[in-house]
Batch of 2 targets.
Target 1
Amino acid sequence: MTDTADRTDEIREVERIIIRFAGDSGDGMQLTGDRFTSASALFGNDLATLPEFPAEIRAPAGTLAGVSAFQIHISDHDITTPGDAPNVLVAMNPAALKAELDKIEPGATVIVNTDAFEERNLAKAGYADNPLEDGTLDGYTKIEAPMTSLTKEVCKDIGVKPRDAERSKNFFALGLVSWLYSRPEEPTMIWIREKFKGRDLVIAANEAAYRAGNAFGETAELSASRLAVRPAKLPAGTYTNINGNTALSWGLIAASHQVGLPLFLGSYPITPASDILHELSKHKNFGVRTFQAEDEIAAVGSALGASYGGHIGITTTSGPGIALKGETLGLAVSLELPLIVIDIQRGGPSTGLPTKTEAADLMMAMYGRHGEAPMPIVAASSPSDCFDVAIEAVRIAVQYRTPVMLLSDGYLANGTEPWKLPSVDDLPRLSVEFASETNGMDDEGREVFWPYVRNEDMARPWAIPGTDGLMHRIGGIEKQDGTGNINYAPENHDFMVRLRDERIRKIAETIPPLEVTGDVDADTLIVGWGSTWGAITSAVGRMRAAGEKVAQVHLTHLHPFAPNLGQILGQYERVIVPEMNLGQLTALLRAEFLVDARVISKVSGQPFTAGELVARIQEETR
Amino acid sequence: MTDTADRTDEIREVERIIIRFAGDSGDGMQLTGDRFTSASALFGNDLATLPEFPAEIRAPAGTLAGVSAFQIHISDHDITTPGDAPNVLVAMNPAALKAELDKIEPGATVIVNTDAFEERNLAKAGYADNPLEDGTLDGYTKIEAPMTSLTKEVCKDIGVKPRDAERSKNFFALGLVSWLYSRPEEPTMIWIREKFKGRDLVIAANEAAYRAGNAFGETAELSASRLAVRPAKLPAGTYTNINGNTALSWGLIAASHQVGLPLFLGSYPITPASDILHELSKHKNFGVRTFQAEDEIAAVGSALGASYGGHIGITTTSGPGIALKGETLGLAVSLELPLIVIDIQRGGPSTGLPTKTEAADLMMAMYGRHGEAPMPIVAASSPSDCFDVAIEAVRIAVQYRTPVMLLSDGYLANGTEPWKLPSVDDLPRLSVEFASETNGMDDEGREVFWPYVRNEDMARPWAIPGTDGLMHRIGGIEKQDGTGNINYAPENHDFMVRLRDERIRKIAETIPPLEVTGDVDADTLIVGWGSTWGAITSAVGRMRAAGEKVAQVHLTHLHPFAPNLGQILGQYERVIVPEMNLGQLTALLRAEFLVDARVISKVSGQPFTAGELVARIQEETR
Amino acid sequence: MTAVPLTTKKDWSSDQEVRWCPGCGDYSILTAMQLLMPEIDRRREDTVFISGIGCAARFPYYMNTYGMHSIHGRSPAIATGLAMARPDLDVWVVGGDGDMLSIGGNHLIHALRRNVNLTILLFNNQIYGLTKGQYSPTSEVGKVTKSTPMGSLDHPFNPISLALGAEATFVARTHDMDRGHMQEMFRRAHAHKGAALVEVYQNCNVFNDGAFGAITKKDARDAMLIDLKHGEPVRFGAENERGVMITDDGAQIVNVADVGEDKILVHDETADRGIAFALSGLAQDRESPTPIGVFRAVDRQEYGEAASAQLAAAQEANGPGDLDMLLRSLPTWDVS
Amino acid sequence: MTAVPLTTKKDWSSDQEVRWCPGCGDYSILTAMQLLMPEIDRRREDTVFISGIGCAARFPYYMNTYGMHSIHGRSPAIATGLAMARPDLDVWVVGGDGDMLSIGGNHLIHALRRNVNLTILLFNNQIYGLTKGQYSPTSEVGKVTKSTPMGSLDHPFNPISLALGAEATFVARTHDMDRGHMQEMFRRAHAHKGAALVEVYQNCNVFNDGAFGAITKKDARDAMLIDLKHGEPVRFGAENERGVMITDDGAQIVNVADVGEDKILVHDETADRGIAFALSGLAQDRESPTPIGVFRAVDRQEYGEAASAQLAAAQEANGPGDLDMLLRSLPTWDVS
Ligand SMILES: Cc1ncc(C[n+]2csc(CCOP(=O)(O)OP(=O)(O)O)c2C)c(N)n1
Ligand SMILES: Cc1ncc(C[n+]2csc(CCOP(=O)(O)OP(=O)(O)O)c2C)c(N)n1
Ligand code: SF4
Ligand code: SF4
Ligand SMILES: [Mg+2]
Ligand SMILES: [Mg+2]
């Protein structure tokens, strides 16, 4: 046995590694992935992650349905996706191997927990023969480790019962993988000690398992497989590894802080949006009120009630919830009150694929209300961008007194990336003033408050209950501009319908112009929105590196569009729009700008990979 | 006094008259209009009507808000609208005059009930001076009749108390107008006797009032104003005067008859859709089940449940209701069950203008569901067309096993036109077969039923509970094509999303090609959908009569479009789309066919008039 | 809180024309309210009326307070958000039997169980007024309406029973023919901390005229209205000769003379819900004696206050939110 | 109706893999049902299970019958349509406490008041299982969950009370630890004509383990479960030493010896709703004796049957629908 220091020289340096941890839901793969991510982040790699859960809470152990996976891409330079085909697969049981093998790249390293490859498990996974023996893994680098038994063994010494010891086998895997890919041990050890504080046996078991994994690498002479990825050269600053739902929650809190109004969240649990409710409910000391309503309609209703009262009313949900909120959103449009409506999109239609990602709610966001009921729409493009977009949504809502739809998706919600923390001083300065004075005169010459008088942004005054002398009534029946009185006159309705449309279009005035990246003078422009940003950016990067000319533009504002979008589109011969739907933005662009935009569509519950995008863009441009 | 026979010679013949009856909600103007309509229909005129109710049940008497109006266009030739500016206004009180005067044509005849023009009523209507005296009616032919007092007078003799007598004053108005415009008396007398059977005093009062109105014309020497409109030359057949909601209800019953399945209506009352619920609930002897649900979601849910059971499930509502049904419609899309969803559109957004018409729910019909949830859409173009479109909706639903959205609007719902009754033998023959046999094999080789196996229309089998041996489960989670088993695989989802899209597009195969009318070789094509048909047809007629070349095409199918629409659009330099919204079909056409379609938009709660359409088309084409 | 100025009915009346049908019971409820408000020690500025859609739901337009005429059935949900966000306000909810019990039934029962600080007035006319006369969830079985030409089949809700089943802390009933009683109930409901439901029997003279005539008209009241009064025996009749007794078979109407005075139930607003529920069951149709008054009034944690208390406790424990600290609350690392 | 063939549990089990967490109470409910079905005289073909969304709502997939796994909260509405359209079918509705009482609360109470012929099973685990552990409308106050880190504030519904308040004609409670009792309740509910609600206390061992342990575990049952039996005195305890008495203060738990046997309530499923309601109120927390069994079972017009009767009556009166006559039912005129 040589010592570790010695071996280090043999470690091959690579630019990037993509590892996929896969096991039974009960195997703790999400945690393992998280730990590996943390260690990599602290080490200074750029990274992106993609957790994938089964739809069942706890599907029967050992079955394909129960497989839980976590993919992480670590790199020594700026990356934007969790990677195409993984270079490494950790399979804790046969089901995991079966479910994941076709996702990884040819020649990849496959690390298996051999203990789990016994008859019952093989059968449950639907393997007639043992894939470790029948040539299934030919062409892969196979690393076989009896993780369960080795973990039990090291745990025996410290007095942990075998059944409990078994639970630590994911730390064995983590130890082994960390050794193989040169992750520092310290952060994980610290974490274990904090997390399990007071449960000394658990701490000891996990530490021992981790070290056993480490040692297994050494003893099994796996040095040939060792790789290292250097820290990335990222802009200086303090970083944290963040997922979209957390970033979104914090963005809302930040916006509330900036605008000086308390948050009120009315929500009904639904995957993958629930974590925003969970996160916000932890921050009551920020004055955040969270209300778990009886359904989605009550959720948005309560948020609207809070907005009426001068709070920033928010409602969070996923597609099915938005489908239920349509009528209330129409009311919000008519009332012209600020309201933030957050849709963490998932696979549809109907219950669809609750735990998978998709971006097919854009049209519903745009049109899912009766009558002409326009609503601004913004979309986040990466986990950390959720923070910024949340602030932008609040800005639009309070400045223009309008409900705003914010679109994110399951991929952004749970995926993570390192995020350079903004300084609080640099956050956008938002502000709003409640009305405090009368602004009209009634027939008898008395000063009164008119709720639908408009300022230069065409926004009406926000006069909250409790304000001296501004008593007024608002409602969903058509009203007269200015006075806000119920008005059924034909001309008034026509006027109001157009006014509501125009006032939303007017928001474009405060949307910064879009910037085209890549080869501005290319023939082909790739237009994206939402979470496709990472894959598109990476694909465009690869194509350009290979000498192809491509331009890219990514939209945060879906309604109204940034003011220069039409002009940009006009400059390109070919406009290609990758979307995780059947072509929703594509249709909007075609209708508005009459450009022959073409969709590259993927609706499989999975994000695009950069590789497949390159191929499909090439197909379109050939 | 000369006798009537004599005077008849003096009656001037005209092609058409447009009369608007207006009065307080309590004045019985709808009934008056109805009676005049019936008499005209029986007389053989072509006609079209437009009733307009106030939003309040009974707004305070005498106020502008309480004005109820009924417009009728009678003609000696085929007409398609209730007319532009009325030639005659009957104003039962000052509020009616004030509210309606600006709608009528210059020089029109204004018939007023002078008794109502006293101080209190003038004040309620907001008149400082009496408009009958201050020159307001200069330039109009004014006919002043003290209707209330004359009615009371003739009723005194027959023993009716003054208070009760007053209620008959609308029959006075009817008598007068019938005399002026040469309507036969008999049908009205018969109707009065039937309607009030057993209430002899009421019959006597109404008859006396009618005759008094008649006599008033004679005695007041109004012969100069007398006009007559000859019967129109309509195709031979039996006619009835029908409104859209009744036609729609009958169409559903007819479809049920043709397809041989019972109807189930789940509905929640809402203006202007409630009358379909009312109408269908009268026809239980047709095996029609109507269920007034607790809300719109339960309404569509119950209809879907009935569809699952092998009925034709129907749900009727207006915009706000559709906004609530979105989630359940997504389920229906996923379940692939027949379901008829009827939206009688009204002014929006939100509560909007409940009693006014609008056609701004097309985009919601198209996109108001989360995920990719395509649904066919059909729209009715005239009151009687509601009958045919209802049958077409049922055809599509049962043949293709899909929810279908049927769009009508407030104007069609309440407006009437003469309808040549179809022969039952000539109705479309619909048919459907329930599944009765297994169609798959399970892993163990047993014959089983697979709910998502497809026929040549890509429709899945409709196996209703109770069927021997076909037990199966369906649901809203993504399923495997064929077996219908829950399936989370990426490829399967992508496949199913595209399949659902394609199977709806495939419906185009059974949609008859569109026919262009007017000048097929014109430069300008007017594309319409829904209730604009009448106004567009009339406008195109007028333009062509004036020597301008215009082509017209009207869409019944909004999704998918008729197969030849793209080709038609491609033939014209200019595509103009009149819509009672801000340009919803326009956007769909632009996105799908990349043609520069331009909207002519009116969103005032009022239908287009032919005159204003002519002007706006000319503006666009100049 | 700002001092409450002296006001009169006129101050509480908005400038909007009242648009109910002449003779509608809603007028007398409005008048009762506008006359009552000056006596309640809240400013118009701090008062909000939230309603759904329906004739009843027009109410907020006529009150010179803050108000929202929202959408059908959702007023309890919207008001819940407002009351939670702004515990300083006085939030009233008004709606009809369709609005609150049909489409809005779920929001109502959840607001009741949560005990949100709302004063909820349910104008029960046993019909859909605004949509011109369909039966409602409180209509009697067999009702012939536009949507039920052969008579309705649905067994009605008893709003009092439903509210008690939904854990309401304050439930009362009154009727539009007795201004004093209405005002007393509104005042009590308003004073209650938490969700208070008042069912108001309201005559729709156009589509359901006289629905309550048999019990509310002056000369019927003695025999037909059981006026519940806390601490007093539950008795009624011209001579107070009838009363209510609790047995193993529930609440029974008896002749006091037959059973003896001491067997008569003494009304206790704070008693077990079962008794209030049994009392609510006495009015199963229009021809049986009907209890009015406060069925139940008990103290329980008010929702908005409890929510605010959690905010305060969180601040107490963790200090006021510090945004910078929040951003650094997950593991961080520095790149230089 | 086709003759009902002899079947076994296996015939009622679908080929789909059961996907609840190991140890979940849903398994025992499924087994109870699959074992019971062969004893109920309905064919699998005529049996339909309709559910919403949630762990409980997976139930239909596992029954070899017709079934629909619909959307969250809407199963009572969908089932209402099916039961009305097809009175020949045997329609069951299954859902969790979130599905049926939170988002679906309104549909449930309306189905109950209408008395639609549905057998409704409410799996109450006092938690949202499928969305991984938020509190539900039946969770106890103060519950710490993902969405309520400082404890929940909402007073819970008592599903039995709510159902009684909603005019239910059949209401029962059982629990997942007693197969025999479950089967008895399912059988009774199924036999009931109209809407029958059975609340099943169900353990979610992942997110709310042991919620009912204090009352349902074998050695606790004697002291903690009050087994309601029609016609029998309501007594419990190891020696049947405790019982329930009705007083002006509601239902009281007493020592039988203290009050005498004849004061003990004799359970009557058909008695006034007030008594059943008072009984339901006995179980206000997890540590108090809890009644199980049939609280109420009364006859009332079944909705679908009544609807069908109207159709028959209309045909009787007007003859079967004649389309041609219908088209000519308004005034017509001829043009030649
Ligand atoms: C979503 C929606 N559905 C239906 C309607 C139509 N609608 C308006 S009021 C009403 C019911 C009115 O009855 P109720 O609540 O009892 O009030 P009332 O008019 O009797 O005072 C209905 C069905 C609507 N406005 N919105
Ligand atoms: C419209 C909609 N909102 C929210 C959800 C998410 N959701 C699924 S199940 C569920 C609640 C589950 O709790 P319960 O009904 O008690 O069933 P359990 O899982 O506990 O058996 C929720 C909120 C959804 N699927 N659809
Ligand atoms: S319809 Fe009835 S409830 Fe509505 S305003 Fe008229 S009388 Fe009142
Ligand atoms: S989460 Fe709870 S209720 Fe759901 S399957 Fe698991 S144990 Fe059962
Ligand atoms: Mg009502
Ligand atoms: Mg639950």
Target 2
Amino acid sequence: MSSALSLAHEPVTGIRHGKLGMWIFLASEVMFFSGFFTAFIILRNSNLSVFAHGASELNWPLAALNTVNLIVSSLTMAMAILSLEHGNKSKFQLYMGITFLCACGFLVIKYIEYTTKFAHGIFPGTNSFFGLYFTMTGFHAIHVIGGMLPIGWMLAKSFTKRGYQDWERVEILGLYWHFVDLVWIFLFPVLYLIF
Amino acid sequence: MFDFSWNMLTYFPPGISTYSKALDDLFILVYWISVAIFLLVQITLVTFIFKYRTRPGHKSIYYHGNNVVEFIWTLAPTVLFAGLGLYSDEMWKVMKYSSRVPSPDVEIDVVGQAFNWHARYPGADGILGKRHARYRTAQNLFGIDPTDPKGKDDIVLTGEFNLPMNKNIVVHLSSVDVLHSYFLPNFRIKQDAVPGSWIDVWFNGTKAGKYELACAELCGSGHYAMRGVLNLQSDADFAVWMDAKNAAKKAVLAAEAANPQAAAPVPAAPVAAEHGSSH
Amino acid sequence: MGAGMTAADMQKSYIKIFGALMVFTLLTIVAAKFVHFPESWGGLSTILHVTIGLIIAIAKAWMVVYVFMHIKFDNPYLRVFIYIPLFLFCVLVFALTVLGGPTL
Amino acid sequence: MSAVATHLEQGHAATHDAHAHHDHAHHSVSFIRKYIFSTDHKQIAKQFLTSSLFFLLVGGAFALFIRWQIAYPGEPIPVVGKWLPDTLVSSGAVQPGFYTQLVTMHATVMIFFVIIPMATGAFANFCIPLMIGTDDMAMPTINMISFWLVPVAGLTIMSGFFVEGGTAAAGWTNYPPLSASGTGHMLWVIGIFLVGFSSILGGMNYLATVLNKRAKGMRMFDLPLTVWALFITSVLQVLGTPVLASAASLLFVDQVFHAGIFIPENLLTPTGGLFPSGANVGSGGGGQPVLFQHLFWFYSHPAVYIMILPIMGVVSDVLATFARKAIFGYKAMVFAVMAIAFLGFVVWGHHMFLSGMSPLLGTTFMLSTIVIAVPSSIKIFNWLGTIWKGNIHFTTPNLNALGFISTFVCGGLSGVFMAIGPIDVYIHDTYFIVAHIHYVLFGGALFGIFAGIYYWYPKMFGKMYNETLGKFHFALTFITFNLCFFPMHMIGVGGHMRRIHDPYVYEFLKPFQPINQFITIFAILMGFSQLILIFNFLWSLKFGRPAPRNPWRANTLEWAAPAHPGHGNFDRDITVYRGPYEFASPESKRDYLPQWIRPAHIEKEEVVAAEKH
Ligand code: HEA
Ligand code: HEA
Ligand code: CUA
Ligand SMILES: [Cu+2]
């Protein structure tokens, strides 16, 4: 019956519900990481030498590789959306596949980074720098995994008979994925480089 | 059975510090302003409720508001509250800005430990020895630097403290475990004791007597019992007391020097922290 | 989709941004790891490193938001979702560092 | 229910019963989909409401234990005492450790599981889609998840009572280092993270819904104030809560790994050993306990406005409806809400005047806090302006709304005392604060919530509540409330600290025992007065008179929906022609003019008949 009524009309703002919701969610995410960055700034300023020393123990070339990883995946994600929007299924699969692989690569590198730290006896409890390092990169990694699930699902779906056409959903996912990249853009210099 | 006054202002514990009067006056000022606003609102509310109650034939009017009135009742509280804020800032400065703390006559260290207050007096040399968190152990709560000779004669007391009256007293406040709050109701002073930093509190008591020291920040199950006593004395009495303490301490130190084995184990200085933050 | 932008145009701008992001990443690494200011500059050298690193990061972030996240082409109102949290972050940091000082 | 209700507006005869559509929903969805994992906003609202009322009882019971101990320390708790385990009570009397757990849990439950879910869960869910004339939320599934996180979080936190060392006991503010160890504190942190997530998901949904799903013709400035307030509140939720989440995460890292983010160097444990911390000697790096406080209050001050703004909205609607008069200065009200929300983000430090923060920062927070009283004053005056020359009906919702104004003024004014730094030095962490808390949270938020519950009860359940019981409940609550909480100001001025298990350890607090007993007696009476609400609520569900479509002759869109709306909410198209508060408009002979009535139909008497049936 409700279908007979025109209550569920077009979005008033002209922005789809899901997309608007995602932008709101991202605003919230910015605040979430803001909390961490604030803590980082404050503790860094009061423990400069600990932080500088901690940063020098991190493996920045690996992190640089990861940066590239995420930038590539961001590009391919944008391309995947574009391809699906224009109905180019095979290109969508290609780009989405690369995105997924990059994400996997990111996690593998993260895993290597973490395990070498553990092997050197460095844990989140080592000091406040590593506490923050593991929390921030850990939450970032959780975000990566959270993005991989829908990426994988959409990709798998696109190989089925019915295929996957909902480019608007991919666009929403894309927003999230670019945000994950964006957080890393800040984590990389802040944790690994500048002291 | 319950005979108590509904007048809030009668409940202040006697104020005996130099600024307790000013502070109470500020409170009283805000109190009367609030009472006035409160009555204004409540009386208006009750009048309207009565006057515009529904009854046969009574109708409401069609009215959406008036910008002039709106402006007035935005401006009035703004002016009033801003004035109040700027006025009270002076008092805040007196209590908090270190530039406004008068030259200290007596300086002591106080730390909170669940669930006790400890104080450190400068001892015979009149100077507090250096301290650092890295030296802190259960035996050396203040983290007195064992290499600093000035710290040797410092006197550490627990629970009950004597201080001279009519003197500017500066307390360097900290904590060795969790947050506490150093609360002297009669002096109208309260300050959180934050582990990891030393915060200065100052006061000047004008009336001799024993006053209660409370802990005002939840610090665990014994929080309610973290009570201390501050014994405010005349200069002469205080000097007598201090001399006695110094003499006792001197005797202890002498005994220790004569018989190092029996002496309380001097805590070995832990490895100096490479990147320790210092306070 | 941006007004009057074809898929090919979009693709081109994506690739341009991608290139810029790579270059900036390289820049930030070089600036942080291979540029050394004279010893005598002391604390100033750290400040310079931090500033350069952050400026590059902000530039990169802006490119991602602007092009990859379509802020350039989309409804301009979406920008509030970036500005407001950023403003609040600045308030927090300003209060704790500039006003707060070492005692917070 | 008569069938005349529908389609009169469109001018053709009603063809089906409002309930037909409702029943239709029944057999197409399973029991689980309908009652448990429902995505219908009204069902979710009811779930929020029930869980909050349940938690209100739990939190209230904790409060009564607290009161008993303060008034009669060392005496066994009547009735309940002997059932409690010996780890909590000694021969029936509250032990010190249990007391701190009670205080913590009381506030945690009341704030995170009663007021916030009630205001931004129950009311937001129920009102937003109905009041903007749409069928459901923008993202119904996310809405459902947002509810189910609440009981999960509640269980997590409550399970603390059964772990070793007991549940969280560091106050609802949970300051480290005290909160940096113990399983109970970890569970608390996890629970708070989960409710926080629920809050964010809810806020997202409300924002998207209000922005995107408004009925035809409804501009932002046609929104009822309830929706406006909920809209702004959602902004606070979305932007504030994540900061709490990051503070909680960092605290968790300290609890589990002892990273030393909030734990400074070389702390001692109660046994005299060193607190395990990454900051200890040799590893370097000192944590900052005060940093946690900043992050916590950066959320939790806006959170107090999360708790009050929706209520202010509800009160505005109730007042206008029952004064039969337009809101005085509708736009001013909206801007005041915006100003409160904005300023709410820059005053958090007023909870930390004594944390040792720099005095300059203190001055800043002092001034900004005082400024925030201005938009609140605007609201108070506009409410007074609203009832001025009105035609006030004393229904239960309106009584509660008027009670709200009366008590909120008191709570707000005590806030001004504390906003003034030097005064706060003395009254910080005393019962003056406790009085403030309850005047704004109980006297403010809870009275407003009662108003809202009574006001929307007919639409929510299709039944009328019992008016006599309602008035009785209000009168008893209002009187006992004031007698219970007002004296707390007085002992607060006397220096009575908060969170103390036995005040009479202190000489200067001994004289306050009679006052404490007085407070306790009225607290107990107040607690039992709430049984009337519960009874009325349940009894009316079954035996209440069927509600008409628009029992209050109100103007907002929810009253255009059938008396007990089913899935999809409305049985007619909704177009909005005017603002929400056209009471006593000269355009109409009646004293109200709903938003959805077409200008051409204003004088059609059958429209009125339809509303009344
Ligand atoms: C709903 C919740 C709520 C609300 C709305 C408020 C509103 C306010 N609060 Fe409150 N507050 C709490 C909940 C709330 N608070 C809680 C829970 C705590 C304790 C936390 C804890 O430590 O556990 C707390 C603690 C608290 C403190 C810290 C005290 C301390 O710990 O030492 C302070 C200090 O400034 C404060 C101030 C204020 C102010 C200035 C307002 C203002 O918004 C009030 C504005 C309203 C008015 C001022 C009244 C109406 C105005 C008029 C009638 C007009 C006046 C007219 C003229 C001037 C002409 N609050
Ligand atoms: C919305 C918030 C809210 C509400 C509604 C209440 C309601 C009550 N509160 Fe609460 N309170 C807080 C929020 C709230 N409180 C906060 C934030 C703190 C600070 C905590 C901290 O320091 O960390 C606090 C602290 C606090 C203290 C201070 C404790 C201390 O510092 O030592 C006290 C003491 O009297 C108290 C008492 C009460 C009482 C008597 C009620 C009563 O109004 C409750 C009445 C309601 C009921 C009782 C429920 C209905 C019950 C029934 C229908 C059945 C009867 C039940 C039984 C017989 C078991 N509260
Ligand atoms: Cu120490 Cu409370
Ligand atoms: Cu506040």
